[in-house]
Automatic annotation (TrEMBL):
This is Amino acid ABC transporter substrate-binding protein. Residues 1-20 form the signal peptide. It comes from Paenibacillus polymyxa. PROSITE patterns: PROKAR_LIPOPROTEIN. Residues 61-280 form the Solute-binding protein family 3/N-terminal domain. The lineage of its organism: Bacteria, Bacillati, Bacillota, Bacilli, Bacillales.
């Protein structure tokens, strides 16, 4: 009878045990890398969680959602550098928090989705404070005051006031509160990716009008006085804009508010405001 050796079986069992232990160790290591033994991610910020002052300071940066196509608030200069009023304000706020700003450019219609998914810690992009948004998000103290304006081609004589938008095409960002003004006045909405595209559609006669930000309109006319557009109406109510955060960022918001207040007190805010608008736009 042929002898049966147990040695191969023993070796196989040992190999399986070693492999299993290795897999368990790897799993534990992976879990610790994401949460840390005490949930602190070994001193690194958890980019999947709601931003707090602690997490921002741990990462050494404030991740800021912004368009990059919305002059003069957030846009690229002739050299291609991201600049603008909101960019300068957010950069100074980050400096006073003791961290570096990291700007993440996103089209307006996706900017809240980016905040929801924690791609960024906050949004600096002239975001208007509305009751609907306050149900889901928290805001810093307002640092921009502006009014909605109705803009049409310079040769347009049919539209003189908001009520004249009924049945007309208005170029609007779909998630903008300005779009609600156009809709409430009966306009047919043509989706755009922001202010610049809305103006492009207007000047090419693909839309009849756009309801947009008064400060952006003033800046455009300052930069391009011959632009074939005109303002024909203005909302009586001012819109207040602020940095927006996911709920749960209260301590971070508190420090951002302190930074904004200090900037106003020492003249830094006014300097930035006059650079882009020639006036204090917080009033």
């Amino acid at each position: 009878m042929k002898k049966f050796s147990f040695l191969p079986i023993v070796l196989i069992v040992m190999a399986l045990l070693v492999s299993a232990c290795g897999n368990n160790d790897k799993g534990a290591s992976t879990n610790n890398a994401s949460t840390g033994d005490n949930g602190s991610n070994n001193g690194k910020a958890d980019t999947t969680a709601t931003a707090t002052l602690e997490s921002v300071k741990a990462s050494g940066k404030l991740r800021i959602g912004t368009e990059g196509t919305y002059a003069p608030f957030t846009y690229h200069d002739a050299a291609g550098k991201l600049t603008g009023f909101d960019v300068d304000i957010a950069t100074e706020v980050s400096k006073r928090l003791g961290v570096q700003p990291e700007f993440i450019e996103t089209q307006w219609d996706g900017i809240f989705a980016g905040l929801n998914s924690k791609r960024f810690d906050t949004v600096f992009n002239e975001v208007s404070i509305t009751d609907e948004r306050k149900q889901k998000y928290d805001f810093s103290d307002p640092y921009i005051v502006s009014k909605a304006v109705l803009i049409v081609s310079e040769d347009n004589t049919d539209i003189q006031k908001f009520a004249d938008l009924k049945g007309k095409k208005a170029g609007q960002s779909l998630t903008s509160n300005l779009t609600q003004i156009a809709k409430s006045n009966g306009a047919e909405i043509v989706a755009t990716e922001g202010f610049n595209q809305a103006i492009d559609l207007l000047t090419s006669k693909r839309v009849d009008a756009t309801v947009n930000d008064g400060l952006s309109y003033l800046d455009l006319k300052k930069q391009k006085p011959d632009a074939p557009i005109k303002k024909v109406d203005e909302s009586p109510d001012a819109s207040h804009s602020a940095a927006v955060f996911n709920k749960g960022s209260e301590d971070l918001i508190k420090e951002v508010n302190k930074a904004l207040a200090d900037m106003k007190a020492d003249g830094t805010y006014l300097k930035i405001s006059e650079k882009y608008f020639g006036a204090d736009v917080s009033k």
